[in-house]
Design brief:
The structure holds 2 protein chains of 2 kinds.
Chain A (H helix, E strand, L loop, with lengths): L4 H15 L24 E9 L1 H5 L2 E2 L16 E4 L12 E11 L2 E12 L21 E6 L2 E5 L7 E12 L2 E10 L12 E16 L1
Antiparallel strand pairs in A: 1-10, 2-3, 3-10, 4-9, 5-8, 5-10, 6-7, 6-9
Chain B lengths: L17 H12 L26 E8 L17 E2 L25 E2 L18 E2 L6 E2 L5 E14 L29 E10 L10 E2 L1 H4 L26 E3 L9 E4 L1 E4 L9 E4 L17 E10 L9 E2 L1 E6 L3 E4 L2 E4 L4 E2 L6 E2 L4 E14 L1 H4 L2
Classes of the chains: A mainly beta, B mainly beta.
Amino acid sequence: MIVDGREYDKNYSQYVSVLNGGMDRDNLPVNSIVYTDFEDKSVGRWQTVDNINAQDDYGTSQDSNFTGGTVNPRGNSINGLKYGSAPIEGGGFWFPIGEALNMPCEEGMAVIRFHINSFVPKYYHFYKRGTTDRVVRRSRQWKLEVDGVEVARTSEIFPAFNTSQIFTQVPVSKGKHEFRVYCKVPVQKEADDGSAVHLNYWGGQLSVHNRRR
Amino acid sequence: MSRIKLFNFYPNNDTTSATEANANNTAINGSTQKIDKENVRNQGADMVNLGDNPHLRFTARQDNFAYVAAGTAPATHNGWIYNAFTIGGTPSGQHYSQTGSVNAQFEYPINHDNTLAINTAHSKGTKIQVNGTDGIVLEHHQKIQINWNVNVWDIYHNGNKSRLLPQFYMSQLVDTSLSGIGVGEYYYLIYPKFDTVSNSLTDSNFKTADDAGFYQSGVGGSLAYFDPSDLTNGNSDVQFSYDNRRFDHCSVVPMHLITATETASGGGRFAAYSTYDFSAQDFATAGPSTNIHGQHTFSVNVAGGGGKTLFGIQMFISGPYRVNSTGQFLESQITDPAGTPARNGVDVSVVLERAAIEVEIINPQSGRA
């Protein structure tokens, strides 16, 4: 048998072109690609900011009304953030909590989850006990920003203890993006003299899963 | 295989050089690499080419299917009552772990089933069996994500003082003449734990991720998880600081709303956050049953997954924890501020109805930072 050199060359060349970057679903067996075949972070990447708490963020101070003795026979105390001190100061504006999450992303979706435990002591709520001296409504609110743009916000939250949740998905471009959580409390009233703890938060987590398109 | 470098043997003649053909065959035969992105066309691979679980290693959901009719009283069932640790062991079938008992465990698995009875088998309460009896061999950089929903049916005054005696709970901060135990600064915690011990899935096998051996505190600044098993009998007032332990795997169960009014005569306000008979009673309530939702995501941060196999995951609930100046502590006293001696603790229990847990284990390639 005589090999037809020209046809042999053509077929061989096509065969090699498939090997060199032309393989597709017709060449690859069914179920042949498993997760270890993926390039690291090629499908998605995931970062978190863990254990967000007021003590780490700003330091906390002691409630000067709930201090034991006849007021609180158990002798316990409450620590947290107060009016007249950072970061609350006069209230009414957003302040950041936890570290900013600066995350390299691929084009696709940022699946963002946030949760945090918080405590707003309610012993003075609208008024100081037995007086008409006004204090704020005891509440807090959370929001989430991506690159400085708000993408999700909770309602104003009133229960004394609460585990607040945010879940949202945001389309993102390739490149680094900043994810950050903020808190807001109501504007100070005349009797908010900084004696009462208004807010404590702990056990927060910001989780971002960048799913590639 | 990667890219094959070939001798250009595509001249315009009709002669096939044996030397050139052999050289090219040798180039292909000599490739020691696997097929990679140099060989596969852009977007050439399709779903049919993917093996099982390229992204998610494991997913599961466990629901205890515990549903009761509106207004069902806590005492109707025993297994759904999770008591404060100061409450004694009768009637049987409730969750007890007294602070005065030897080797007390200061937490409970959430393990009541659809009949509202304690059931320690998997797939009944919130105990998930992971991948049958084989479990899953954990790998470094896997992400584990857990979601849970627990319905708190009632804040249950199963202890010393009735919910109709709110004066025992209200501090003088909120009422002019009373000296109750506080201002409502107490709560329960709900959190997941993990079994890497054996596929028997006994409750004592379930531990925090660090104690289970596939998460290590100190790696990248990570902290140890809050863990009631660090408590031993007699030191239940040990403090857990908010910034020295991880609490981001916990959700809180609020118990009492206590607040003052502006009337000079006092008249503090008191309400329970979850009340089974909210529509039929005249005492204050902050609402009917309360859904407590929580979530947590964390990495297997130990090389080789610590050599651990994950067999199961289960939700747990603490006793009443209480805020103090450095964080929180487990309550060990009953509620009896008017007694001699006065005891100013919290012995309020909780009643849990439906509870469900979902888990995802994400493979390292798509879960890494």
